[in-house]
């Protein structure tokens, strides 16, 4: 099989990681996987996985650029014998759809988010993600949204949760030195409770809300918000000012490449998103690493975190509910924490493995090729 994946950039994020994971799976299955993208820090990971980068401006939403990209992709499809075009974002999906229809290639989309649609024009723009010969939803929450918003039938809709690489996110594979180095980089002293919030710095991810929830906490907590600011310097400055005013010790280390060690270095992992997450990959990764997890009780996180069994779910934006959940998590003794860790890893392995994602997506490709 020859697959062409389309994604704006290869910097960080669940869609980008899934792109690389499918390049690995296609290559292992004896096929070729091309990826049209602007590129980014994950380029080397793509090449190591066996993927081939085609550098194109897949980020632009300019209609002229979209049309030109469609022509470029059509030529690429014909030159390389591409059989399936798989789009993972709206702007490149428009170019990919036109190119696929022009050349007769099959067209697949992965619906990675709810995509706000406040106007009719925006709904039309979003609808391209539901126009594939197969439409992959990365959670049952997203599948319900796609059915309601676009009327996609079960003949085209497939639910494939995002995957966790259980070889990378394996507590036994992380040396204590990596964990100690991570805590030292964060400035955490022995015995100090570290609360980790992984995710890019943007208001809807809940960093500012969590600072508010931790204001006046009776014991010392070091809040680590690990993720790119992505040009949001004003928001980063606002977080620092809010933390100082609230008496919260805040660390903003930027992008962390060794997330397996980061999860182990934390006493608690929180995902306080104010808007529903499509899936909640960081919560699944943290569970795989045996970390206690609290996630907002909406969206795909409800499918990831089993309340009271593998972690907690708290009402989004409810400071009191979050304070109660944080207190319960930090009060766990070593025996209860170990039991929670075992259940969390077992759930991640059973429901959210990278191998399951890869095989399920390959099966979608095989359906279309047959």
Automatic annotation (TrEMBL):
- Kindly list any coiled-coil regions of this protein: none
Q: Provide the GO MF annotations for this entry.
A: hexosyltransferase activity
Q: What are the protein's UniProt keywords?
A: Transferase
The record's section on InterPro entries has:
Glyco_trans_1, Glyco_trans_4-like_N, Glycosyltransferase_grp1
Cross-referenced SUPFAM superfamilies: UDP-Glycosyltransferase/glycogen phosphorylase (SSF53756)
Domain named Glycosyltransferase subfamily 4-like N-terminal: residues: 13-167
Give the Gene3D superfamilies listed for this entry.
Glycogen Phosphorylase B (3.40.50.2000)
Annotated ranges, domain Glycosyl transferase family? 182-343
Protein name as annotated: Glycosyltransferase family 4 protein
User: Which species?
Assistant: Alkalicaulis satelles
């Amino acid at each position: 099989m020859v697959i062409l994946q389309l994604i704006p950039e290869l910097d960080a994020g669940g869609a980008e990681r899934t792109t690389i994971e499918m390049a690995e799976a296609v290559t292992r299955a004896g096929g070729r996987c091309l990826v049209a993208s602007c590129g980014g820090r994950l380029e080397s990971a793509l090449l190591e996985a066996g993927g081939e980068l085609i550098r194109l401006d897949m980020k632009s939403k300019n209609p002229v650029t979209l049309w030109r990209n469609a022509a470029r992709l059509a030529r690429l499809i014909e030159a390389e014998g591409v059989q399936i075009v798989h789009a993972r974002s709206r702007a490149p999906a428009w170019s990919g759809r036109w190119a696929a229809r022009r050349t007769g290639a099959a067209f697949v989309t992965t619906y990675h988010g709810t995509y706000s649609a406040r106007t009719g024009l925006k709904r039309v723009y979003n609808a391209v993600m539901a126009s594939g010969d197969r439409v992959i939803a990365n959670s049952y929450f997203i599948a319900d949204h796609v059915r309601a918003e676009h009327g996609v039938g079960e003949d085209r809709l497939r639910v494939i949760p995002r995957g966790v690489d259980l070889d990378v996110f394996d507590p036994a594979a992380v040396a204590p030195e990596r964990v100690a180095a991570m805590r030292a980089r964060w400035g955490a002293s022995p015995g100090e409770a570290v609360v980790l919030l992984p995710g890019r710095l943007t208001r809807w991810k809940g960093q500012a809300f969590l600072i508010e929830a931790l204001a006046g906490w009776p014991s010392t907590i070091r809040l680590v918000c690990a993720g790119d600011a992505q040009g949001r310097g004003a928001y980063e400055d606002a977080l620092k000012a809010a933390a100082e005013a609230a008496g919260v010790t805040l660390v903003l280390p930027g992008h962390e490449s060794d997330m397996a060690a980061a999860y182990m270095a934390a006493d608690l992992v929180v995902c306080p998103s104010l808007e529903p997450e499509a899936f909640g990959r960081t919560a699944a990764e943290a569970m795989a690493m045996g970390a206690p997890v609290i996630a907002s009780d909406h969206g795909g996180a409800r499918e990831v975190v089993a309340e009271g069994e593998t972690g907690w779910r708290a009402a989004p934006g409810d400071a009191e509910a979050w304070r109660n959940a944080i207190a319960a998590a930090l009060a766990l003794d070593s025996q209860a924490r170990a039991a929670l860790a075992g259940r969390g890893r077992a759930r991640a392995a059973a429901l959210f493995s990278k191998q399951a994602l890869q095989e399920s997506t390959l099966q979608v490709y095989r359906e279309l090729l047959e």
